[in-house]
Design goal:
By secondary structure, the chain is of the alpha+beta class. It contains ten helices and six strands; from the N terminus they run H-E-H-E-H-H-H-H-H-H-H-E-E-E-E-H. A four-stranded mixed sheet has the order 2-1-3-4. A two-stranded antiparallel sheet has the order 5-6.
Length: 243
């Protein structure tokens, strides 16, 4: 693999694109993406995000435990209430056991027929809100497509056809292979062609103990300055879409 090919597998070479490695089931990643989008809106800046997958359940060989997500949701939601999150409102049997299908849909939406990178980012944002804010089971295709129907940039029919053909599945495993390398440190990790290389930016926290043994995230502070700095480096103008 050439150095250029290796770089492009890690982040987009387009200077107008922010590459974000994450899992939809990671509250910290959802916080970072919210901050990025909110800051862009406040600046009147157009930001284009290329979502790459850091699939926690493939790394850990198990679903991400609900008690850990619950603890992180409470800590983050209390610090940043404008997220509009709430505790899981439904019965446990409706809780998403996997986020892979949702992330496959986000990858499939990158195709021009579905809507390209803008549609992919809009769908990713909507799926995260559906999970953390509305308690919807984003593990199942019908729910993913229902969320997609609420996204003006997404061609729902084209997405449904892409999912039937497993279009996003290969991308998940390609990203997983890259994510196992040394450069991507976790979810979220943001890169830009201008040199941004930031893992879980802005968040200062520590676990009070092993989260698998009942530890809690002590979320002590959060800064949005990183998003201002990143957006100041991103080149203006429309980026080249992938198809």
């Amino acid at each position: 693999m050439t150095q250029q090919a290796d770089t492009e597998s890690l982040y987009s070479s387009d200077p107008a694109v922010v590459t974000v490695w994450s899992d939809i089931g990671c509250p910290w990643a959802t916080l970072a993406l919210h901050t990025l989008h909110a800051t862009a809106r406040e600046r009147g800046t157009h930001v284009l995000v290329d979502h790459r997958v850091f699939p926690l359940e493939l790394f850990n060989s198990e679903p991400t435990p609900k008690p850990i997500i619950d603890a992180e949701t409470v800590a983050i939601g209390a610090m940043v209430p404008e997220l509009g999150w709430r505790m899981w409102p439904g019965p446990d049997w409706r809780y998403p056991v996997t986020t892979l299908p949702a992330m496959e849909a986000v990858q499939a939406a990158k195709a021009r027929a579905v809507g390209g990178l803008p549609a992919s980012d809009q769908l990713d944002t909507a799926l995260r809100h559906a999970f953390y804010g509305r308690g919807r089971c984003i593990s199942i295709t019908s729910e993913i497509l229902a969320v997609a129907a609420e996204c003006p940039l997404v061609d729902e029919a084209a997405l449904g056809e892409a999912l039937e053909h497993g279009t996003g599945r290969a991308a998940i495993h390609r990203d997983f292979a890259v994510a196992r390398g040394p450069r991507v440190q976790g979810s979220p990790h943001l890169f830009t062609a201008a040199g941004t290389d930031a893992h879980n930016p802005g968040a200062t926290f520590r676990w009070t103990g092993d989260p698998y043994e009942g530890g809690f995230p002590n979320f002590s502070s959060y800064s949005r300055d990183w998003a201002e700095e990143l957006l100041g480096k991103v080149a203006p103008g429309a980026a080249t879409q992938t198809g």
